[in-house]
Amino acid sequence: MTKNNLTTSWGAPVGDNQNSMTAGSRGPTLIQDVHLLEKLAHFNRERIPERVVHAKGAGAHGYFEVTNDVTKYTKAAFLSEVGKRTPMFARFSTVAGEAGSADTVRDPRGFALKFYTEEGNYDLVGNNTPIFFIRDAIKFPDFIHTQKRHPQTHLKNPNAVWDFWSLSPESLHQVTYLMGDRGIPATLRHMHGFGSHTFKWTNAEGDGVWIKYHFKTEQGIKNLTQEVADKIAGENPDYHTEDLFNAIENGDFPAWKMYVQIMPLEDANTYRFDPFDVTKTWSQKDYPLIEVGRMVLDRNPENYFAEVEQATFSPGTLVPGVDVSPDKMLQGRLFAYHDAHRYRVGANHQALPINRARNEVKNYQRDGAMRFDDNGGSSVYYEPNSYGGPTESPENKQAAYPVSGVADSVAYDHNDHYTQPGDLYRLQSEEERERLVQTFVNAMKPVEKDEIKLRQIGHLYKADPEFGTRVAEGLGLQVPEEVK
Q1: pLDDT of 237
Q2: The pairing of beta strand 85-94 with beta strand 255-264
Q3: Is 54 marked active-site?
Q4: Domain of 69, in residue numbers
Q5: Which of 355, 385, 401 represents a domain boundary (last residue)?
Q6: What is the predicted pLDDT for the residue at 35?
Q7: Same domain, 192 and 335
Q8: Runs of H (alpha helix) within 205-284
Q9: pLDDT score for 432
Q10: Which of 248, 324, 415, 454 is the least buried, fewest Cβ under 10 Å from its Cβ?
């Protein structure tokens, strides 16, 4: 039998892995013990910087199968025929907490998907909510700062949270969703997923449509009450992570049906809400769901760090047939996500096994930290060149769309931040409204300034007078007269 020798990172056999090299039995320890130094140095570097957001997450492998012909809308190869399967990887996560935080906090869940298509990887990086708190990327660092810890106390800071939200009325739709029953999913398997942003699909003839992605869980929607979620957080903070792993391990493979809403390009100029504003939804009465395919997760990672922690996703990881929209939040994410991965994982993160495209990658990017492939070998390393290097394919350019106007820092034209949150409130049963109101009250009670509470109450009242009044009463306050 071949002996299974322990080696150093450079492959040399290790003679003693139990005792460090010392000067005599009492030491001191000798710096010449390179095996000791290598073990300690590597151990100090085993944690890459955690994600600034979405730090706590779980992931799994699976496949996506097309169930409906959508080729009249998009030329994306992985959607080209019914029955076609594409391997994929999914990562679900909370947003605000650290890597060791509890799974069952009230927080949106990241819903990040990587499709390993024959035209390169396609990432769809959304949430379990169809909207978001803000609609311009310039506000994102400030928003996330409010979700993090106070620089002095190092505690979560409800004053910052509600101060920001009350001064950003566009957040009301997402906040109402978050404070409702779906704010805490029972498991990662029992929640929907959304692309959230508006994207553009382009077909082989160059015709385009605006689209929104919806992933409907086949397991059904299940949620946790605040009381149960708090109890689980104390008893098993990794509850969602454990549930997903065990379900797949036991052969109970979670699945989602993928649908899209499709909007003709010209409708974007006349729709009653700005279709590129991520704080708004499109009515399914106006743009019904069209089935596209089915996502199934059927294999757990073999190594969490290599596959889940080092997985990198970006809405800018696109394939031909899928284009972006003028959504200001999306436009900022196109830069920020790739940049975050270059910082957190490294310049060559796309070459790691979990992120590597299944088709051959051919480009002129060279060098950088941790370049672990052949680095392009001796091939030509610039373009244009006369040596037969890879060249662009004009038919795969992103689809064009017209732009106009004066270069300026401007807001969206539409500022109705109250109709959709009000509709969401009125859509709920009386029992759901009671829980929603109580969740708002409990979340806002720790806020020190009544000024902040009253400002938020004003937004709720504008969405629905009953909504604002009930929250005000729960906080022992009156709806401001100027709001009425």
Answers
A1: 97
A2: unpaired
A3: yes
A4: 57-138+182-355
A5: 355
A6: 83
A7: yes
A8: 226-235, 239-249
A9: 97
A10: 415
Count up the domains in the chain and report the number.
Answer: 2
Domain CATH code at residue 187: 2.40.180.10
List Cα–Cα distances, 431 to 173, 260, 466, in angstroms.
20, 31, 14
Of 442, 449, 450, 445, give the one whose Cα is nearest residue 478. Answer: 450
Start-end of H helices in 133-204: 140-147, 158-166, 172-179
pLDDT average per 10 residues of sequence, the chain (484 residues): 78 85 83 83 84 96 98 97 98 96 97 96 97 94 94 96 97 98 98 97 96 98 98 98 98 98 96 96 98 98 97 94 92 92 92 93 89 92 90 86 82 93 98 98 98 98 98 97 92
List 35, 121, 127, 349, catalytic entry: 127
337 is in an annotated binding site: yes
**Is residue 259 one of the residues assigned to a domain?**
yes
Structure tokens at 267: 């409708």
Same-domain check for residues 351 and 425: no
CA distance linking residue 53 with residue 148, whole number of Å: 9
Spatial distance between the Cα atoms of 454 and 225, rounded to a whole number of angstroms: 26
> Is 204 among the domain residues?
yes
Residue 395 resides in a domain: no
Amino acid at 265: L
pTM greater than 0.85:
yes
Which of these is catalytic: 35, 54, 61, 197? 54
